[in-house]
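Our collaborator T.R. sent over the components below with a one-line note: 'Predict the complex.' Nothing else. No constraints on interfaces, no templates requested, no preferences about which chain binds where. So this is a plain run: every listed entity goes in together, and whatever single assembly comes back becomes the starting point for the next discussion.
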Amino acid sequence: MLTESRPLPDLDAAATPIGVLRDIFGYAAFRAGQEEIIDLLVERTSTLAVMPTGAGKSLCYQIPAVLGERPTIVVSPLLALIDDQVAGLRANGVEAAGIHSGHSRDKNIEEWRKVTSGRAKLLYMSPERLMTPRMLSAIGRLEPGLFVVDEAHCISKWGPSFRPEYEQLSRLGELFPGATIAAFTATADNATRIDIAQKLFRGEGRTIVHGFDRPNLTLAVAPKADWKKQLLAFLEDKRGHSGIVYCLSRRLTEEVAAFLKAEGMKAIAYHAGQPSEERKANQDRFMSEDAVVMTATIAFGMGIDKPDIRYVCHLNLPGSMEAYYQEIGRAGRDGMPAETLMLYGLDDIRMRRQFIENDGEDDMHKLREHKRLDALLAYCEVASCRRDALLTYFDDSCEPCGNCDNCIDPPKMLDGTELARLLFAAIQETGQAFGAAHVIDVIRGSENQKITERRHDTLSTYGAGKAQPKSFWQSFIRQALAGGFLSVNLQKYGCLELTKRAQGVMTRGHPFQYRHVSMPTKAEKSARSRAVPDSLSERDGELLGALKSLRLDLARERNVPAYVVFPDATLIEMARARPASLDELSGINGVGPKKLGEYGEKFIEAIAEGA
Ligand code: ADP
Ligand code: ZN
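Returned assembly:
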């Protein structure tokens, strides 16, 4: 095992992060946040990086891995993701290896040799494979310089996607004291971040949070009325693009696929009930063909890093804000506009509550999950900028974004300042120590044991809000939560707490507005749908089509996903700039030397033909 830090390798001038970015990966500049993380890892500081999907996490560890002297071990939960990452690196001329149960024994041995012989600097594997005593001692002999934990939120019980096999990874620090640990996640609230950093590097090291904002995603939520109509309206201007429609049940994925097929779309159902070959074939079609709609349960998606998914539609309420954020986050990873729509109905809410009750976990866990669901419902009901509400959940915020349903088409608002003062006063009078149910009992003047025992019937706010029904207050509180006036303390049994914004309403005369929420009716207009902006001219668009089909041929020959050949953003830049020589082509973002040599001539030819 490694017991001491090794000195930094000697870097010649080209062997710098920016040099590797340009000369190997073919990109001109770092994206926000990448360089800082790379620098930390190069100087061997363990780092937890929280970055939105599509921000470019992979390069943040791949570049230090290329620059490092010792091998890098990347822990990744999914086989498909491992294969795609390895293929992506090889396409850029960086040798990498992946060991997993989907490979034959011989293949795994061959991959392992690549690492021991020093040909491959990166080795990808699953946590359960890494953490066996045999593998650990073999890895110890490799003296890795860097461990990368992808999807690091899976290590935390605070997060919604805890995986027991991840818990073992908290031993990495003590097993490999000389190695740097890098952890990446796209979803982690504050408590989860602290927990991850504690587990992986005992809180020593840095946490870098790079905002959760995905400004290129249009956000919209609508009550479910007639899902077929609503879905068709949403898909109307998206027929030429790829997207995902998420459904709660397997049966619904099949029903929706059949419905869309009858409407002339290339729709494929995907769920865990299908035989694995069929599932794999469906996924391959989605990855390699254009304009496929995947109607899927959440079994589909983790590890799908197709960069040009143009929309995600939820036909049912997702499981939590984290799940929602992760699911919509699969759209628009290339940074170009993508649209999202979530439809939710009362049935969904009931079903979600039922799931939580039935999942057999302890009461604390159930309570936490119910509170998570409350936060999601609050998000559905918010009347102000939806993006701000989403970011607020992740301890961030933004100005009204102009790219969500509420900004584009603001709902009608009522003044609720007096009602809010009453609510906030009740929360304060009860010591910010109770959940919504009890606070509502206080303001509505209920006579129950909890009230009398605590003498809450003597408070000034007792009964002061009885003119409004319980359902009104529930919705009102959800809106106050969504607006960041209140927060739910999950560590303290989900009690409501006042935030600075609430103080502003109570003492500084700030107004509080709310939307009176009525239950969805059939008459409610279907979700509005904006065109996915398409800034290419018709001529460039035609060339893009030709480049995409060339890419598909090349990808099929090599048996890799299309974007491993070139991502969409690169093809679009080609269609616009129409490079006429290899030299000009090398100036396009995403064309590194390896790809230039391998595909350059073919693309130049296709561009010349399209001129
Ligand atoms: P994440 O893992 O954060 O979701 P990826 O690492 O898959 O994101 O990167 C998303 C896309 O952005 C990929 O197609 C990647 O090649 C591209 N990308 C990453 N960094 C850059 C950069 N500096 N310039 C241009 N494209 C980049
Ligand atoms: Zn907005």
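Summary for T.R.: Residues 425 and 577 are 61 Å apart (CA to CA).
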